[in-house]
Write a structure and sequence with these properties.
binds S-adenosylmethionine, Rossmann fold, two-stranded antiparallel ribbon, 11 helices
Length: about 280
């Protein structure tokens, strides 16, 4: 296996800094630098972008990003034990890596980044979905990021890219696909990580659309989709009854059968229903 940089192998870094993995922090580390460089490449040309990385840990993906030419990397890590290892990477790539010690859910990293910005991360499983939903629901669109290249448990990745008619199709698919192009670009077995998690993982690539795929008020669309999928086994005329007294007529007006179930309705139709309920469709 060829070295991607002059720094010590990750196993040596982990031993030197005593970085035994902590479950509470979602720590499953990637130690194969050829693999982390491959993940970094999924994000496209890094040389003209600032990268936001959440949870660099001992720095495997960080090193992949820098070796692949990232203009700058801003890495936010909660575990103080990882900071000395990350300092060594920063010293090997002068001026290109900044590390913030803190909780990604509480820190606003934007002040430290210049567009275009790509987010690349092997996310801690306990905050991954919450971060994704935040990145997909900023007050203004387009968002601060051009693309998100994110590792998730395979089951979450499938929910992000799911199509109507599948079991995985739900709120996450609609939110992600309304505002971004989403696809699974890599599949990783548990053995790729140290320690190995119980489940398979996958990398999802999301590219921000300039405007959402179909017009709709985000708050109304979100209410419609939440009501529809909260009772996904029910017919829509029942699950959406609380949204409008004449919901059956509104469903019919946009071409949705009132007896249909949420998981069969396309994103386009959900947007049409949101516009109808808002009074402009
Ligand atoms: N990027 C490394 C890799 O690929 O080997 C580590 C990935 S590990 C799945 C997740 C990382 O996120 C850990 O280093 C963990 O300490 C960190 N982390 C967990 N919760 C965090 C939070 N709320 N904010 C920032 N980092 C967090």
């Amino acid at each position: 296996m060829s070295a991607i940089d002059q720094l010590p192998p990750l196993r040596a870094v982990i031993a030197a800094h005593g970085l035994s993995a902590r479950k509470a922090l979602g720590q499953n580390f990637l130690l194969d630098l050829n693999l982390t460089a491959k993940i970094a490449r999924q994000a496209g040309d890094l040389t003209r972008a600032d990268i936001l990385e959440i949870g660099p840990g001992p720095g495997g993906l960080t090193r992949g990003l820098l070796a692949e030419g990232a203009r700058r990397v801003l890495a936010v890590e909660k575990d103080a034990r990882c900071l000395p290892a990350l300092d060594e990477i920063a010293a090997a790539y002068p001026g290109r890596l900044e590390v913030i010690h803190g909780d990604a859910l509480e820190i606003d990293p934007l002040a430290h980044l210049s567009p275009p910005i790509k987010v690349v991360a092997n996310l801690p499983y306990n905050v991954g979905t919450e971060l994704l939903v935040r990145w997909l629901t900023p007050p203004d669109w387009p968002p601060f990021w051009d693309s998100l290249t994110l590792m998730f448990q395979r089951e979450v990745a499938e929910r992000i890219v799911a199509r109507p008619g599948s079991k995985a199709y739900g709120r996450l698919a609609i939110l992600a696909q309304w505002r971004a192009e989403a696809r699974i670009v890599m599949d990783l077995p548990p053995e790729a990580f140290t320690p190995p998690p119980k489940v398979r993982s996958a990398v999802v690539q999301l590219t921000a659309r300039q405007a959402p795929l179909y017009p709709a008020d985000p708050a109304i669309l979100s209410r419609v989709v939440a009501a529809a999928f909260n009772q996904r086994r029910k017919m829509l005329r029942a699950s959406l009854r609380g949204l409008a007294p004449d919901i059956e007529a509104r469903l019919e007006a946009v071409g949705i059968a009132p007896t249909d179930r949420a998981e069969r309705v396309s994103l386009e139709k959900f947007c049409a229903l949101a516009r109808n309920i808002a009074g402009d469709g």
